[in-house]
Write a structure and sequence with these properties.
This protein has two domains: about 35 residues, no CATH class; about 120 residues, Rossmann fold (3-Layer(aba) Sandwich). The chain is an alpha/beta fold and about 180 residues long. It contains six helices and five strands, in the order E-E-H-H-H-E-H-E-H-E-H. Strand 3, helix 4 and strand 4 form a beta-alpha-beta unit. The longest helix is centred in the C-terminal third of the chain and has 16 residues. A three-stranded parallel sheet has the order 3-4-5, sandwiched between helices. Strands 1-2 form a two-stranded antiparallel sheet. Helix content is about 35%, strand content about 10%. Bound molecules: iron/sulfur cluster.
């Protein structure tokens, strides 16, 4: 099929070709800039509290810090979210659940690690039962601290927004959780 407007030739399966054409179209400025701007103000984290850092995450979403003004809206269903915010310790058992949640999230999706426990084990550094989330997921922003304050959560959102608006991510580049199943 030949598209006279774009001057490109689409070969093969019509549905597949249409998908490629729409992907091509979305990657062109200013459509891409508009798309990235919209995504940056639509970061919806899935509720996935694994440890005590979750209290600070909850505080960030409350009226005093009001993370919702950044378009940051915590949501229950992974299928309606695009941000996995791992709050603190991730045990082997919960890592399996995190992988399932992450796989259910639509593209483009992002990952923030919160707290020193999520970064490198923290006080459980030598534990047999701790997983380093950065070995499983492509992490966009790390928040250090024990626990990080809600302001740090707000700052991480702003950093991720900047990253998205500067087109530093690749749409649909197959972010599959790593590691054994
Ligand atoms: S970093 Fe501190 S507050 Fe966060 S999960 Fe670890 S021990 Fe708890």
């Amino acid at each position: 099929m030949v598209c006279p407007l774009m001057g490109i030739v689409l070969v093969g399966n019509l549905e597949e070709s249409a998908r490629k054409a729409s992907r091509w179209f979305l990657e062109k400025p200013p459509i891409r800039n508009l798309r990235d701007w919209a995504i940056s103000f639509s970061l919806w984290p899935v509720h996935f509290t694994t440890s005590c850092c979750g209290a600070e995450f909850a505080a960030a979403s409350c009226p005093r810090f009001d993370a919702e003004r950044f378009g940051f809206l915590p949501f229950l269903s992974p299928r309606q979210t695009n941000l996995l915010l791992i709050e603190g310790t991730l045990t082997r058992k919960m890592a399996e659940a995190a992988k399932i949640v992450y796989q259910q999230m639509p593209e483009p999706k992002f990952v923030i690690l919160m707290g020193v426990c999520a970064l490198d084990g923290g006080i459980f550094h030598n534990s047999y039962n701790i997983v380093r989330p950065h070995e499983l997921f492509p992490v966009d922003v790390f928040i250090p601290g024990c626990p990080p304050r809600p302001e740090a959560v707000a700052r991480s959102i702003i950093m991720l927004q900047r990253k998205v608006r500067n087109s530093k991510y690749i749409w649909g580049d197959g972010h599959e959780p790593k590691g054994e199943d």
